[in-house]
Structures are given as C-alpha cells and as structure tokens.
Amino acid sequence: MQLFIAISPYKHLVNDDLDHYIEISNDIDLLLLRVPMSRNLLCNAIDYLLTHGFPRDKLMVHTDISVLELYDLHFIHFRENDEQAFLYKASHPHISVSMSTHSVHSVERAKHHHLDFVFFGHVFESSSKEGLIPKSVVDIKIATSIDIPIYAIGGINQDSLKVLPAGFQGICAISFFRDCSIQEIEHLRKVWHAYV
Description:
- The chain is α/β, with parallel strands linked by helices.
- It has helices at residues 15-23, 39-51, 65-70, 83-91, 104-112, 137-144, 175-179, 182-195, and strands at residues 4-7, 30-33, 59-62, 75-78, 96-101, 117-121, 150-153, 170-173.
- Strands 1-2-3-4-5-6-7-8 form an 8-stranded parallel barrel.
- Residues 58-175 form the Thiamine phosphate synthase/TenI domain.
C-alpha cells in the first residue's frame, strides 16, 4: 500500500525538478507525473528519471495509457469520473488505477468500478485551490467510511497532518514534496505514524 504520494507541479519539468524527485525517491512511495508536457517531453522526463535511478515501480502517470504501457508501469491516475479509468480497470485488473475525487458520490463510483484507491480533497486550504472551501469533517467522515483506500490531498504539511481527520490510508501533496528535504519527509512520516 502506498502512503506518501508526491505529485509534480503542473508545469514543464526541468532537470532540477527531476533531480529533486530522484533525491527524495527513497522517502516517497509514488510520484505522479501530472504535467502539461507533450508526450515526447514526458517520455524524455521519464527516461531521465529512470536512467538516474528513480525506481520504475514508484512512477505513476496521469491519463496517458500509451505512456503507461510503453514503460511497463503499474500505476495510472485519472480525473474525477473519467470513464476511461473505469474501462481500463475492467480490462486491466493487474494495473493500479486511481482517481481524484471531490464528492462522496465520486468515491462511491470509484469503489463500484473496482478502482484501487482515490485522492479525496481538498482537505485543508491549498494554494492550488485558492478561494475554495475545504471538505467538511462530515464529508470526510462519510467518504472515509466507504470501503476503498482514500488518500488525503490539499494543504498537507507537517502541521496540518496533526489535525487530519481519521480514516485516510495515505497522503498526497504537490507543494510539500516539491519543496521539502529528506529530513522534512522523515519528520512527516513520524507525524503520520502518530496519526495512524
């Protein structure tokens, strides 16, 4: 089971970005590459990661099934309620298929279609969701009672993790994992173990 999922910022990744994820690769459990890059540039980034020691089994791509299959990866993530996710999971049960969710209904749909896990959020105020109200404690409680692994997303850091409502199996973050050091991730893991 994956616990700490780093999500790349939504931008063209340069070598400095990739080097950072290589540096922290032992301390994260998955890296979701969610970028506006062309397929060729994304492949170049994956080639760079793999040739510089990033573990293949920790790579997750967003939506692009052709890249998943080209690199023989095991994890793919989709937008909320993307029918592609449901169809792909049905025909490729051995691949881990996950989805972003923003409502209890979406979590229920993901479970119904046998997806492996979902991101649910945003759970705290987040720079990527500026001005939008985080999920209520009631929504979180209902969502986490559904029998599918749920990962908290939105505003996750060392402080917010201490007040994260119970029931999540792991966490996802863009800013924290983009900006953190190995020592900060190790500290976050200690906070996480106190949470669970």
